Amino acid sequence: MPYAHRFLVMALLGVLTGWACAEQAAWVSEADGRGALEWLKPGGEFRMLSAPGETAAGPPQALTEIRLEPSSEPGKFAVVANGKGVDLATVYVSKEGKWANLAMLLNLPVTDMPEFLDAPADAKLDFVGSLYEGKVDEKHAFILDLSRQGNNLDGAYAYLHIGEPIAVKGEIKPDGAFQLTEYTEDKPTGVFEGALSLDGRSLSGTWKNEGEEGALPFKAQRFAVREGEERTEKIAGVETKTTLAWPIFEAMGGVKMDALNAAVKKTVQDAYAQFRTSTETALNAVESGEEELPEMSFDMSYYMVTFHSPSMASMFYMTYEYSGGAHGMSSFTPYNARISADGSIARLALKDLFNTENYLEPLSAFVLDVLEKAEASFVVDGTVASFSAEDLASFTLSPRGATFHFDPYAVASYAEGTFDVVVPFTELKELWNPELIKALGG
Questions:
Q1: Residue 373: strand, helix, or coil
Q2: What span, in angstroms and rounded, lies between the C-alpha atoms of 297 and 321?
Q3: Residue 93 near residue 99, CB atoms below 8 Å
Q4: In whole angstroms, what is the distance from residue 89 CA to residue 404 CA?
Q5: Is the pLDDT of residue 203 over 70?
Q6: Is pLDDT larger for residue 185 or for residue 224?
Q7: Residue 396 phi, psi (nearest 5)
């Protein structure tokens, strides 16, 4: 893959709660209040301690509304955030990568409060992201997976009728305004400019080709958010870094996605458990006193949703693991499921894509032909001359067709990387399951 990213986009969470006491900096002068408003901008984030003397702050809070109001004491004002008055002594804002006490930044007298919180200002943003479905010019449907770390954005999007992921990188401002540049083979090919709503549920703006005049409007709505974790532990005494992420799909068309979310998360957890078990077994077999092993890693944080509707979901993970040797190993893990009206799910197998049992030979021939034209070396030299159903079990779906994913060494050498083969529904027409194509909007 030409890129890997974590999903990672701003956390727009909850409703801010204020501290009821007013002993320190709940009422301030108008000048200090306006100074506070310079740090507290709608669309930004901040954290709060519950009261002086506390040390555990809550997660970053999204600021949707901020204003000054006169207090009952003449000449004093209250800072009202998200509809509630706050004590500036308990408020922390992002400054140079740290969460800094707002009252201290304004030189207000404060006691029993730390100047900085322990966690860096973007510590909670690494594995917070969102996935959006939308259209460019009201007709070109796409899925966008966007993550944020600080002011930086990165991710990927894909047009459903094409299915190829396109990398995007850019920046976002505290008010939600953003610019994203798309890259194909590391070359800029287009630009998104727009704004993210304060609740994070929608984004809109314009898209245009790189270097061309004129722009097309786009709109998109959130359909999933990211969850994940990162940890370092020892497996059989060897330091191992683990990075996991998965989507949490929101209800759609009145259908709850609880079963789908549980299954997708379990897919990630099971893959890691298998890695841990196999690695631990291998390491325990190593004779003591042999060469010291380097740090190992397991990264299953990159994924791409290729289709999602109230009745179907299709996605794949790209996993990278390193447990010693000359290089690590990448692999695809697909997940495809039909979703019933009650939210229950049924995994899709390769045979479910077709209306006949005699699909394998023509499908295999089509895929081999594409791979030969792509100069996949094991196909070119005849090492791979046919495919079984198991060989073609790694697939994803979109309105365009089925995409078959091949790991390194499956059809070519490691140096040649991974291969994807799209089989459009316009090919092998007599084989496809018509109900499947209809569910995909084809």
A1: helix
A2: 6
A3: yes
A4: 56
A5: yes
A6: 224
A7: -135, 165
| Nearest to 339, CA basis, from 244, 262, 246 | 262
Q: Report pLDDT digits (tens) over 26-77.
A: 999 999 999 999 999 988 888 887 655 554 555 677 888 899 999 999 999 9
What's phi and psi for 130, nearest 5 deg?
-140, 155
Q: What is the pLDDT of residues 217-227, one digit of tens each?
A: 999 999 999 88
- Closest C-alpha among 288, 12, 337, 275 to residue 146: 12
Q: Which long-range contacts (CB under 8 A, 24 or more apart) does 414-421 make?
A: 414/327, 416/376, 416/377, 418/1, 418/330, 418/332, 419/371, 419/374, 419/376, 421/367, 421/370, 421/371, 421/374
Q: How far apart are CA 306 and CA 312, in angstroms?
A: 11
β-strands 216-235, 129-136 pairing: antiparallel
Q: Which helix (H) or strand (E) holds 102?
A: helix 102-105
Q: CA 216, 163, 2 angle in degrees (round to 5)?
A: 95
Percent share of the chain, pLDDT over 70: 87
* Token pair in block for residue 298: 């397991």
Q: What is the pLDDT of residues 351-395, one digit of tens each?
A: 999 999 999 999 999 999 999 999 999 999 999 999 999 999 999
The type of residue at 291 is E
- Paired with 69 in beta bridges are 78
* Main-chain dihedrals φ then ψ at residue 368, nearest 5 degrees: -60, -40
Task: Assess contact for 295 and 279: CB atoms under 8 A.
Answer: no
DSSP string for 260-295:
HHHHHHHHHHHHHHHHHHHHHHHHHTSPTTSPPPPP
CA distance 268 to 272: 6
